[in-house]
Amino acid sequence: MVAVVIVLLFNPLNFDTSPVSNGLGGTVNQIDNNNTNTNGSFPSHLSTVNALFISSSQEALVATNPALPFTPSYLDTILAKFDIYVQKFFSENLIPASAIVIVKDGAIIYQKCLGVKEYGTQDAVNEDTLFQIGSCSKAFTSANIAQLVDLGIMRWNDTVRSYFTPEEFQLYNTTISDEITIRDLLCHCSGLPASSGDQLWMYFNYTYPDYLYRMGYLENNTVFRSTFQYHNIMYCLAGECAYRAAKNASLGYSSWQEMIKEMIFKPIRMNSATADFNEFSNSSNRVHTYVNINGTITEWGPLNVEEIKGAGSIAFSISDMAKWLELQLENGNFNGLQVVSSEELTKTKTPQIQMDSTNWYGFGWAITSNGIITHSGNVPPSKTLISLDSVNNLGFAVVSNEDTYGIAFNKALYLFFNNLYQSGQVNETIWTELRDSASETTKDTTGKLPDPPSPPEPANSLSTYVGIYANTFYGNVNVTSRAGKLILFMGNSTEPANLEHWNGDVFKIADNPFSRNTAVNFTAINSSGIAQQVKVDYLETGYGVNGTFNRTS
Predict the structure, then answer these.
(1) Looking at residues 344-354, what average pLDDT do you find?
(2) Mean pLDDT across the stretch 412-419?
(3) Half-sphere exposure of 408 (CA within 13 A, CB side)
(4) Which residues, including other chains, have CB under 8 Å from residue 231's CB and lie 6 or more apart?
(5) Is the pLDDT of residue 61 over 80?
(6) What is the Cα–Cα distance from 507 to 459, expressed in whole angstroms?
(7) Going by C-beta distance under 8 Å and a sequence separation of 6 or more, which residues neighbour residue 529?
(8) What is the DSSP secondary structure assignment for residue 286, as one 8-state letter?
(9) How many angstroms separate the Cα of 193 from the Cα of each of 15, 25, 108, 196?
(10) Rounded to whole angstroms, what are the CA distances from 321 to 265, 268, 386?
(11) Cα 61 to Cα 267: distance, rounded to the nearest angstrom
(12) Residue 69's pLDDT is what?
């Protein structure tokens, strides 16, 4: 059975909880594709890290998956079996829409569109219906950088400082700020805590420069270049550097989104694809997005990913996906056009840093121990899974639009298809186990408030709580009241988080499916009966940034 790496991107509940140490720097022996030495010289009291980065002599690790005898009759048999399971699984879950495509040897051998774009309607998903693909966007960013390397206007080992001034980009550790490279960003080894800052772009509606500025308040919790720690804001920075490189070379693109469209989408005829969130949200042929709350399908989102660009802003259809798989499997060639050189594209899928005992990460791709290249995308509530088996010239992709069961559905289909083509057999309990596990996840009470005491202590008057509160890292939250209810607004967001009274001066977020029933606790009430602090539990992430905000007005 082929292993799969599910990188849970954009999961607001999956923050690193290890203790945060002082900002650290370190050196490491990396693959040097550009003959540029970026290893820094650091103070002797800081750790020097031996390479977790894979060396060229270890590349045999990625070529162990066996080639299989795919005859037309064998393919017909396994695809017929697979289709039965696709239909069965889809009918057994509450996902409104999904689409699957499998390509082999440059041709689509299976394609299926399931469900409807909007729950409760008859508007069926088709091959051009757009889905958000979340962090599967990352491979587009690295492929585009490979194109710029081909053009000689960028190098993998360029430092961020080559493109961003200290006024624009400064981490807590100034040495790392000066030494961090495009390569470091693409393989998630900045040393910043995993997923730190994700809640900024999910809930606070700032611009990317502000997200980047706020990274300067975070201390590293691992040595620079020592450890894989997934980080969307830092990965996005690689795309920002790429856009500046293109601008410096007068390529004439007005935005990163236009650059991706002109350099990748158009050459491989991805006619529906967009990297522009507004284009996606205004499209008449896109899926709506949903969460399952207590067994009820509820529309939520789509999440605005405009400012996270190269880390997760792309949306495309299953017909687009087939072309992307073909480009990857054909080493940058599409119908005779070499869109990106094989040499540079291969580097994006070469192990760079170890994720765990059996899996590695390249530039926007995970590599399993048997050489399968894969990545998932999780931009709530949309889910994507992509897999490349280069030995068998086989690509697989599935997208879905529901948060609770989407990952389970995608992973089950992936495992079933791989079981079929490896052995012709499947274990149906895989789906049952994954589905049941997803159901249990919805019952997770971690961080959630228990039932209130009976009777609860009464709240003070709402004027006790109304006001603006500030936090150095997050910025402001604004607590207002309307029709006798408290409402919380985060940063520049105009999306309200409605608060329900729980007990005393503690309220709970009522309607956001990802922070629902978590505490908003007003404290330090002064002699005038005015709260001076509010702690938002959902923003208490455990990586050195607390969720306490102090009143400013």
Answers:
(1) 97
(2) 93
(3) 24
(4) 188, 190, 192, 194, 195, 196, 197
(5) no
(6) 9
(7) 460, 461, 463, 464
(8) B
(9) 8, 14, 40, 6
(10) 11, 11, 9
(11) 32
(12) 74
DSSP conformation class of 161 = G
Q: Is the peptide bond before 513 cis (omega within 30 degrees of 0)?
A: no
Q: Average of pLDDT values for 413-430? A: 89
Long-range contacts of 66-73 (CB under 8 A, 24+ apart): 66/391, 67/391, 67/392, 68/392, 68/421, 68/422, 70/104, 70/392, 70/421
Looking at residue 65, its pLDDT comes to 67
Measured in whole angstroms, the distance separating CA 353 from the mean position of its chain's CA atoms is 18
Q: Hunting for tokens 């057994």 — which residue is that? A: 92
User: Nearest 5°: CA angle at 79, between 287 and 364?
Assistant: 55
CA atoms within a 13 Å half-sphere pointing along the CA-CB vector of 184: 30
d(CA 306, CA 207): 9
Residues 6+ apart with CB under 8 A from 345: 143, 146, 328, 331, 332
Q: Provide mean pLDDT across the span 352-357.
A: 95
For residues 464 and 524, what is the distance between their CA atoms, to the nearest angstrom?
11
* Residue 12 pLDDT: 31
Residue 77 has a CB neighbour count (10 Å cut-off) of 13
Mean pLDDT of 246-254: 98
Phi then psi for residue 256, to 5 deg, are: -60, -40
CB of 352 closer than 8 Å to CB of 363: yes
- CA 450 – CA 502 distance, rounded (Å): 9
Number of H helices, E strands in the chain: 13, 22
Residue 163 structure tokens: 């493109």
Q: Is the pLDDT of residue 30 over 60?
A: no
Of the two residues 268 and 48, the one the predictor is more confident about is 268
**Listed residue (234, 385, 399, 215) closest to 308, CA to CA:** 234
Type of residue numbered 169: F
- Reference 502, options 551, 464, 432, 454; nearest CA is 454
Cα–Cα distance, 130 to 128 (Å, whole number)? 6
pLDDT of the residue at 292: 87
In one-letter notation, the amino acid at residue 296 is T
Helix ranges (H only) for 34-154 are 72-91, 138-150
Share of the chain above pLDDT 70, in %: 88
Would you tell me how many other CB atoms lie within 10 Å of the CB of residue 149?
24
